[in-house]
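The protein record filed here:
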Amino acid sequence: MTRKAVHRQLIGDLLNLFGGSADPVVSHLVETGKLTLNDVRELEKRLSAMEKE
């Protein structure tokens, strides 16, 4: 199993603990300072690129 596959499985399992919603995880990351404004901007770029595909 590749590292990427393991990450995907772990993240999927984590989200399942929260009913499939990323909101509680993202909120925690923001509150603990592990998700920065720069991280959010990068995520916005990725989402924008995905919309264009």
